[in-house]
Amino acid sequence: MSDPREVRIRATKPDVFAPLDQPARYKGAWGGRGSGKSHYFAQALVLECFSHFGTRAVCIREYQRTLQQSSKALVEATIRRLGLISSFRILHDRIETPGGGLIMFNGLRDHTAESIKSLEGCRRAWIEEAQTLTERSLKLLTPTIREPDAEIWASWNPRHRTDAIDKFLRGNPPESAIVVRANYSDNPWFPPGLEADRLYDEKNSGAHYRHVWEGDYMQVFEGAYFADDLAMADKDGRIGEVRADPNLASRAFWDIGGAGARADATAIWIVQFVTSEIRVLDYIELRGQKVGDVLAELRHRGWEKAICHLPHDGSNANNVTGKTYEDHIREAGFSTTVTRNAGAGAARRRIEAVRRLFPRCGST
Ligand SMILES: Nc1ncnc2c1ncn2[C@@H]1O[C@H](COP(=O)(O)OP(=O)(O)OP(=O)(O)O)[C@@H](O)[C@H]1O
Ligand SMILES: [Mg+2]
Question: 143-147, 251-255, 274-278: which has the minimum mean pLDDT?
């Protein structure tokens, strides 16, 4: 068994989290990327289980389809970092803690009023990525965590003022709640790789930077998501007349809409890659049209040789015809590729990927 004093010495945390070391029914840490929120709570959880025998705890997210999406790897790494591996027992889907306790990893989305009862008896519930927590999940969870000294912890990167966790712990927190804001500048161990990303974003984006790195709410809705990037392109003189290079492949990047009149539009960006430049040559947006009509428009504008890049739903088969969107486009003589489904969090990563590429868009 490890000496508790030694363990405390190995336990390190940014000062900003110090207020959270006091007992409180609700504790929250919100802020920008890489501020040490997850590490703080993982460590607090391990220390609590180590010092309070028989503690049952649960690490929760709204969605958790696989254990890889859970905090298990971080909790495990923290146990090792603190030199406590001989006191815990790491199992496939849970961790046994000293004195017959347990750390579980759960997705709230999959719980019902009935199944949530399995969490009764937990003294600690840590909600990670709490910005995605729904009102329903919060209401399901709070009465369940009911041991006399039970605590509910939340860490999150804020998105909207109206998200359930923001309304609760920032808008109208219970008097006893302790909530801190943490940013990268509070983290003495902020990794160099993230610092490079941060500096890049600081130079290239305004509202986005403040949201991702400083924990501000998102300022714009999806439609205006790239407003800053567009303004920057305009300022740099990267928006203007660009001609297609006939010797280079043209690529058509599709966002597939629906066929009904009120469905999302189908949008296509025509792009050529010219050395490190990304030249966006044309944009097509059609609402409520069948795939044949969209292809006709592509041909009409002279993009019949464009290589079509489809998102993952391009390979979904139609219930009636059994054909995929990709089949239709290929049969019409276009060459196509379909991007595979990149799973949870892909939408956010895609938005960020575009943002990184944006400074290369246009012709200089
Ligand atoms: N107590 C610590 N000891 C050593 N390194 C730490 C500690 N806390 C944080 N770090 C370092 O800082 C990095 C960012 O910490 P962490 O992932 O906890 O931040 P976060 O606020 O949860 O970030 P995100 O917003 O991306 O979820 C970690 O990957 C780790 O390298
Ligand atoms: Mg985190």
Answer: 274-278
Q: How far is the CA of 37 from the centre of ligand 2 (A)?
A: 6
Which CATH number, 3.40.630.30, 3.30.420.280, 3.30.390.30, 3.30.470.30, labels domain 227-360? 3.30.420.280
Tens of pLDDT along 118-134? 999 999 999 999 998 98
Ligand 1 pocket, residue 61 CB under 6 Å: no
SS3 assignment, position 193:
helix
Q: What is residue 363's three-state secondary structure?
A: coil
Radius of gyration of the chain (CA): 25
Q: What is the DSSP letter of 176?
A: T
4-186: CATH topology: Rossmann fold (3.40.50)
From the CA of 42, which ligand is nearest? Answer: 1
Predicted pLDDT of residue 3: 74
**What is the domain partition of the chain in residue ranges?**
4-186, 227-360
Which protein residue's CA is at the shortest distance from atom 14 of ligand 1? 34
Separation of CA 266 and ligand 2 centre (Å): 35
Q: Is the pLDDT of residue 222 over 50?
A: no
CA–centroid distance, residue 3 to ligand 2 (Å): 29
Taking CA atoms only, the protein residue closest to ligand 1 atom 4 is 189
Please give the Cα distance from 15 to 21 (Å, whole number). 11
β-sheet bridge partners, residue 26: 152
- Determine the residue of 41, 47, 189 to mutate for testing ligand 1's pocket, defined as the one with the most ligand atoms within 8 A of the Cβ atom: 189
Q: Which of 35, 39, 352 to mutate to test the pocket of ligand 1 (most atoms within 8 A of CB)?
A: 39
Q: Phi-psi region for residue 130, left (φ > 0), alpha (ψ -120 to 50) or beta?
A: alpha
What does the alpha-carbon distance between residue 353 and residue 42 come to, in Å, rounded to a whole number?
A: 29
Q: Are 28 and 165 in contact (CB under 8 A)?
A: yes
- For 130, phi then psi, to 5°, come to -70, -10
Q: Strand 265-274 relative to strand 277-287: parallel, antiparallel, unpaired?
A: antiparallel
Counting from 1 in the atom list of ligand 1, the atom nearest the Cα of 129 is 27
pLDDT in tens, 7-23: 777 889 999 999 999 99
